Amino acid sequence: MRTFQRDEWEQVREAGKGPFLLRYGFLGRGLPLGVLTSLAISVYQGNEFPALLQTLEYYGLLAFCVTVFTLSGSFAANANWMVHERRHARTEDASGGA
Fold first, then answer.
1. Engineered SS bond to 73: which of 29, 45, 51, 90, CB 3.0-4.6 Å?
2. pLDDT in tens, 17-61
């Protein structure tokens, strides 16, 4: 989980929760892990690398893996968002809202 300093978090928060989930849930976890996992599963099943990219079975597996890792990444990114919201709300309260 990435930790943001107060000034960094203000910029991230200003951009919004949607872009945060997209960046850390889908682009940071869902897409790369989905692609790598689907390739690893296909190669483990005995498919040869360049040829497996031309099969419909691979693209079904790819869609499944990307979906699963995007969901888990979105849950983790959402938890990260909530942790930072609480952490920085406490620091605002402690510093008098400044």
1. 29
2. 899 899 888 998 899 999 999 999 998 988 888 788 888 889 999
State pLDDT tens for residues 57-80: 899 999 999 999 999 999 999 998
Give yes or no for a contact between 21 and 78, defined as CB atoms under 8 angstroms apart: yes
Residues with Cβ within 8 Å of residue 89, at least 6 apart in sequence: none
Is residue 98 in some structural domain? no
Judge whether 67 lies within some domain.
yes
Q: How many residues does the chain have?
A: 98
d(CA 73, CA 59): 20
- What is the span of the domain harbouring residue 42? 6-93
d(CA 84, CA 58): 38
